[in-house]
Amino acid sequence: MIGQEKNQSKSSIRVVGLDLSRTCTGVCLLTDATYNSFTLRPQSLQGMEKLQTLRNLLFDKIDRFKPNLVVVEGYSFGSQNKAFAIGEFAGIIKLGLYDRGIRTLIIPPKVVKRFISGNGDASKQEVREAIKAKYGWVIKSLDASDATACALLGKASLLKTSSYRSELETVHKLEIQKKTCARIPKPAINL
Question: How many domains does the chain have?
Fold first, then answer.
């Protein structure tokens, strides 16, 4: 794991941010007062064993954290030759969240980047730098930085507030989109 464990306080806001990947999944557990950003990297595993291990590690964290929202960074269409592998893994995670009844937002990468940096075309490094500049948090992994941006977007969406204009504008646009989306029986919303 990369990142620092922080004390978990009993908090009304409990958001998980995910940057899903079969090689290095970024995770952020965010409350009102704390954050814990890290990556999951199952070394030397292949195929179904790797998927099973990633799923179990991730849901162990999620089940213990008991989030009221999970924000997943959607697919990056620039990831050529990886679409099937990431789709397979993401489908397993989305189904697990759905089965648990956890409210889930799937947010396109450009929206996450615009939210945190003001630029939808920001690089992973620029996302990490924006988090440090705004919040003073040093995130070691670029994948954990993307997950942290997702979690921050989720927190701002739940609270409907932020100190930063780019964040408020993105949350406002998401609220409009959510109102115009068809209702899904369980709490998963694709944007």
Answer: 1
